[in-house]
Amino acid sequence: MAPPNHKPARGTRARSIARKLAMQALYQWQLTSQSSQEIKKQFLESDDSAGVDREHFEELIDGCIDQNASIVAALAPYLDRPLEQLDPVESAILLVGMYELQRRLDIPYRVVINEAVDLCKRFGATDAHKYVNAVLDRAAREIRAAER
What we know:
The protein has helices spanning 12-32, 36-44, 54-66, 68-75, 88-103, 109-123, 128-143. The chain has 148 residues and is mainly alpha-helical. Helix 1 (12-32) crosses helix 2 and helix 1 (12-32) runs parallel beside helix 3 (54-66). The radius of gyration is 15 Å and the shape is globular. It starts with 11 loop residues before the first helix and ends in a 5-residue tail after the last helix.
């Protein structure tokens, strides 16, 4: 438990950790169908959560799980096959990326795409980052047209 005077983690590093944990949590959710509460508790109590932006992590998990059907539908036009046919790692990364593109307009689309590509390079299959980049870039052209 954090000390009472501990400030919540914020900033780019804290959000990067939140995205990484969210991707891992969503991967687990896809395989186990655990509740978002169980998954959030497990990941926030792990040693990997040091320095995480807890608010952002919780928002990503709640948003991606609660709004899963609409996020999957929003991704569909940019995919060459159903999301369920993708590797669960890439699928989780795309869920986080699409959620942020659609609902976190305060985060520049380039940051969303770069973070997704970085995660995919670390955890995804060889060259999967190219696919994730292409999908999110096409989505950003429409969703964030004004920002481009």
